[in-house]
């Protein structure tokens, strides 16, 4: 298992090092974007007033419900076991609570975790997983929708400090134009696009590549 996790970490590092030469200065600068700082795993920003912004309208929980494919994300320690086909499924339980079911493919079979999310504002929630220890259901917001298209087919979410970031799509396969749009949105929200890595999908991209290289 230790060798397996080390291999995944090495793959993520190699993917980031494959970023275009135009991003070289960002790498040596620590990936500064808009006064913030990002690395392979974003350190986020704790500067008051510089939080990840919410999308500019109230998210309709019923429209947002359903299956999403996580086509790209900031690498997180808790998801190192995931090798491909990461998805999130949501269902509105009431006006302020959403059920959450995250799954992914590993070399040992499917991995699934279930929890709930409590609405905190028009586009922010607190997600908790009962099987994960030391979680506080009353803790701060850890899931904020910062971009959502009109058709509820593409969403970009993260925590307020940008320590996490996820690109969610209703389909596992994005066109080149769509990837370019995603990169622009990610950068406009204060992340370093090279720190986002694509997630291999059976019906989409098969590689792990930095978003800035697409």
Question: How far do the termini sit from each other?
Answer: 31 Å
- β content, as a range? 25-35%
Uncertain ranges: 1-48
Shape: globular
CATH class placement: Mainly Beta
Query: Helical region count?
Result: 4
> How many E strands?
9
Please, what is the CATH homologous superfamily?
A: Calycin beta-barrel core domain
Mean pLDDT: 83
Secondary-structure-based class equals alpha+beta
Query: Major β-sheet, in short?
Result: 8 strands, antiparallel, barrel
CATH topology term: Lipocalin
Helicity range: 10-25%
Q: What is the number of independent domains?
A: 1
- How are the strands of the biggest sheet laid out side by side? 1-2-3-4-5-6-7-8
CATH structural architecture:
Beta Barrel
Order of helices and strands: HHHEEEEEEEEHE
Radius of gyration: 16 Å
Keywords: Signal
InterPro entries: Calycin, Lipocalin_ApoD, Lipocalin_Blc-like_dom, Lipocalin_CS, Lipocln_cytosolic_FA-bd_dom
Pfam family, one: Lipocalin_2
Family: Belongs to the calycin superfamily. Lipocalin family.
Structure explained in plain terms:
The chain has 214 residues and is α+β, with helices and mostly antiparallel strands. It contains four helices and nine strands. It has one domain (2-213): Calycin beta-barrel core domain (Lipocalin). Helices cover 18% and strands 29% of the residues. Strands 1-2-3-4-5-6-7-8 form an eight-stranded antiparallel barrel. It is globular, with a radius of gyration of 16 Å. The two termini are 31 Å apart.
SSE layout and pairings?
Blueprint: H1 2-17, H2 24-29, H3 61-64, E1 66-73, E2 84-94, E3 97-106, E4 109-119, E5 124-128, E6 143-148, E7 154-158, E8 165-169, H4 176-188, E9 197-198
Antiparallel strand pairs: 1-2, 1-8, 1-9, 2-3, 3-4, 4-5, 5-6, 6-7, 7-8
